[in-house]
Specification:
Blueprint: H1 2-9, H2 13-29, H3 38-51, H4 56-87, H5 89-94, H6 96-109, H7 111-117, H8 121-133, H9 138-163, H10 167-172, H11 174-200, H12 204-212, H13 216-269, H14 277-286, H15 290-302, H16 305-322, H17 330-335, H18 341-353, H19 371-387, H20 392-416, H21 421-449
Length: about 475
């Protein structure tokens, strides 16, 4: 490997750019790209930029342009020859399983699948062709694809650049990173499925209890002590029943939160991202100045998780007051006036989950525990609440502000040395996934009732009335 790097450093930069661009574009432009080491090439470009052979910014721009061109050619090929290629001998060599997995990703996620595919080795070669064959409009394909290209190319080149002399270590860990991405995609799909189930069962405790009632031991208890249960239910009353259901629902949310935190923590820990923690921390430390530290610390102190939770509570209360009717179940409570409740649950979960979800010491600092996770979830919740009935410019502005806030707080904590890169990634993923769970649930509930679930259901009139 050392001999290869020495040989490459002796080549003209223009020739390196051309060869690397052909490799990166060819990974998706031709079906044989399944065998092309695109990620390793980008890491190598980053290392050569670190060594001074190439310049970092031109290298990034050239690689991004090459990847976009390759994906565009693949998309056009899918439009023209997609079905024939898939049915042919070459498509058979790709394998039915790979085609099916890429197909499922695109069908399930749409444009988001195009973005996700950029991070999965086989998918980034196949998905652009599937998008073209499925007649996905190019104006929809292009922005999602560009977002995936920028993040994948930028992340890979910067990883190689930051790794420096540890390039060989990063290259060796690349396979683990790809596997971690696959697990992450599976985890996010599980979050979406859980959200859809919650949307179809807005009172999860009752839904689980009704299923448990069909079990043989429960049927035996009901048959033997049914009268006692009935008398007990009569004394409880509807108000206490709702309270018990909400408390039991919150316990379910705690369990779900711990499960998501554990999975995402395991994904990041085994992805090899931690190998960059030291390099990233040193990079920020070299640029730390007393004046900038004071300003950054003020920003971190202002964007405390506890303050944002209070802000979410106020916004949710105002919106609930403007749209007063709501149903007496868990989802309606946490989707309207109680939108702050999942954030409190998340804060407790990440505080108990340990170092995987927080900063270097698990709590990061004397500020609100696991600030990155709570801030990410709070800002996403605020964007969701404010854009639910708004026009698309307002929605775009709200989500853009939320993204900028998350990037700002993560960058500020990294600058101050309060978080590691791997810990920040875990925390932000947890906060976003936690918010996505309730967004999917609310959207599913909305479709199920044929309108805004906060509105009262219409009373059905009898035909003989």
């Amino acid at each position: 490997m050392h001999d290869l790097l020495t040989s490459l450093q002796g080549l003209p930069p223009l020739l390196i750019y051309v060869i690397a661009a052909i490799v990166v574009a060819g990974e998706t432009a031709v079906i044989f790209g399944l065998l092309v080491p695109g990620e390793a090439t980008l890491l190598l470009i980053g290392f050569l930029a670190y060594a001074g052979t190439l310049r970092l910014v031109p290298a990034l721009l050239v690689m991004i342009l090459a990847a976009v061109i390759g994906d565009t050619l693949a998309y056009r090929a899918g439009q023209r020859h997609g079905p024939r290629l898939r049915a042919g001998r070459l498509g058979a060599r790709v394998g039915h399983e790979r085609w099916s997995r890429a197909d499922a990703m695109l069908g399930r996620l749409g444009g988001r699948g195009v973005l996700t595919a950029r991070w999965v080795a086989f998918a980034r070669t196949l998905v652009p062709r599937l998008a073209g064959a499925a007649r996905m409009p190019y104006r929809r394909f292009a922005p999602w694809n560009l977002a995936g290209v920028v993040t994948w190319v930028g992340g890979s080149v910067l990883a190689g650049n930051l790794a420096g002399e540890s390039y060989e270590t990063v290259s060796r860990l690349l396979g683990r990173a790809t596997g971690a991405v696959l697990v992450l995609v599976a985890a996010l799909v599980a979050v979406v499925l859980a959200g859809r189930w919650l949307g179809r069962n807005p009172d999860p405790v009752r839904a689980l209890a009704s299923r448990a009632a069909g079990l043989r031991p429960v049927r035996w208890l009901s048959g033997r002590y049914g009268v006692l249960f009935f008398l007990l239910a009569m004394h409880v009353g509807p108000a206490w029943t709702l309270l018990i259901n909400l408390v039991a629902g919150l316990l379910l949310l705690f369990v779900a939160g711990f499960a998501i935190a554990w999975v995402l923590g395991a994904v990041v820990r085994h992805s090899g991202l931690a190998v960059l923690d030291g390099a990233i921390a040193d990079w920020f430390a070299d640029r730390r100045t007393p004046g900038a530290v004071d300003v950054t610390l003020a920003v971190v102190s202002a964007l405390r998780g506890s303050s944002l939770i209070v802000l979410v509570a106020v916004v949710a209360a105002v919106l609930a007051w403007r749209n007063r009717p709501w149903r007496a179940d868990l989802l309606s409570v946490v989707g309207t006036v109680g939108a702050f409740v999942p954030l409190v649950v998340l804060a407790v979960v990440v505080d108990l989950a340990g170092p995987a979800a927080g900063g270097p010491d698990g709590r990061g600092s004397a500020l609100f525990p696991a600030q990155n996770a709570v801030v990410a979830a709070s800002l996403c919740t605020l964007a969701w609440l404010s854009s639910r009935r708004a026009r698309w410019p307002v929605a775009v502005a709200a989500w853009t502000a939320a993204a900028a806030g998350v990037v700002g707080i993560v960058g500020a904590r990294l600058y101050l040395g309060l978080s590691t890169a791997s810990g920040s990634a875990t925390a932000v993923l947890l906060g976003v996934a936690w918010t996505a769970l309730f967004m999917v649930a609310w959207a599913t509930r909305d479709k199920a009732v044929g309108g805004d679930p906060a509105e009262p259901a219409p009373v059905a009139l009898r035909a003989d009335a």
